[in-house]
Design brief:
It is found in: Cell membrane. The protein is mainly alpha-helical. The chain contains 17 helices and four strands. α2 crosses α4, α8 runs antiparallel to α9 and α14 runs antiparallel to α15.
């Protein structure tokens, strides 16, 4: 048994990628059994398998692994084997999220790709005029995507996936649709995706085009609205959705102590985090065509004693200066 506070081994260097860190740990005689124990700890019947003293075994495993290559490892959003990578991260961070409490970190590496945020802000300010002709920015965004090979290809893929009827699923296969949507927003540069999602509108036709960007009949809407906390529980049981929600909480956390009103003081990363939620069980979209208000397809009407928690969840979308700005 390893004493708490004493490292089982010392890593010569940190593997930033959790998949690489997991491979390194699995090939180490000291790390490997601790990783196996940890996975049993986070499994539903882990305590039964570990028997008496399960809690101490789990605590010792976590303490030992904090000195392993696993500590501090991260994943890339949209990477191959993303779920495998995230499962390794959350095995060590299983207790990070409690209910709706805010998190101080999330699994993903910072986005290296950038985009012209100043241009996006200018674009979002409204339609502009050239001579006597008013240009529709939402239509321009669609045309720009069609010119770019990657954007056009992946947009065609998700549209096809989201409108194709399924013998088992009815009007569409939602899981297939959402997977294609995640692929689009993870792999296409935000210069294109953000113009499609956040283009300004001054008429109903434009607003409807914007609302239909993610094919809501398949990816977003359902016959009945589920309770938001129930949707969030499903999200937290999925490694990808849990990670996207953690990123959104962190990068879109409002604060009264920062002039911008956003704790990270960076509206751009908040928009990236927002797009990461699309294709999940808490996918957000425009609530109507008369405003730019967004939110997931869910309700707090049946929240009972947890109504305040549910309202807090919705406020992240309905009343969040980081997102609205």
């Amino acid at each position: 048994m390893v004493l708490i506070g004493l490292p089982l081994f010392v890593s010569a260097g940190r593997d930033r990628d959790c998949l690489q860190a997991g491979d390194t740990c699995s090939s180490d005689d000291g790390c490997s059994p601790r990783l196996r124990t940890l996975r049993q700890c986070v499994a539903g019947d882990g305590s039964v398998k570990l028997g008496p003293g399960a809690r101490n075994q789990c605590e010792n495993a976590v303490t030992a692994l904090l000195s392993s290559p696993l500590h501090g490892c991260q994943c890339k959003r949209g990477m191959k084997r993303e779920k495998n990578c995230l499962s390794i991260y959350w095995s060590l961070h299983q207790s990070v999220l409690h209910g709706l409490s805010l998190v101080e970190s999330y699994p993903y590496e910072p986005e290296e790709r950038g985009f012209d945020y100043v241009r996006l802000a200018y674009m979002a300010a409204g339609e502009y005029e050239v001579g006597i002709t008013t240009l529709n920015r939402c239509l321009d965004a669609a045309k720009a995507c069609n010119v770019d090979e990657t954007c056009q290809k992946l947009r065609t893929e998700y549209v096809s996936a989201c409108i194709q009827p399924s013998a088992r699923s009815g009007p569409c296969n939602r899981a297939r649709c959402n997977k294609a949507l995640r692929k689009f927003f993870d792999r296409v540069p935000p210069d294109y995706t953000h113009q499609l999602l956040f283009c300004p509108c001054t008429d109903m036709a434009c607003a409807e085009r914007r609302r239909q960007t993610i094919i809501p009949a398949c990816s977003y809407e359902d016959q009945d609205k589920p309770n938001c906390l129930a949707a969030l529980r499903i999200c937290r049981n999925d490694y990808v959705c849990r990670s996207r929600w953690a990123q959104f909480q962190y990068d879109c956390q409002p604060s009264e102590h920062v002039a911008s009103g956003c704790k990270q003081d960076n509206y751009a990363v908040c928009l990236l985090a927002y797009t990461g939620l699309i294709g999940s069980t808490i996918t957000p979209n425009y609530l109507d065509n008369s405003t730019s208000n967004v939110g997931p397809w869910c309700s707090c009407s049946a929240s009972g004693n947890h109504r305040e928690q549910c309202d807090d969840f919705l406020e992240y979308f309905h009343d969040n200066i980081c997102l609205s700005e």
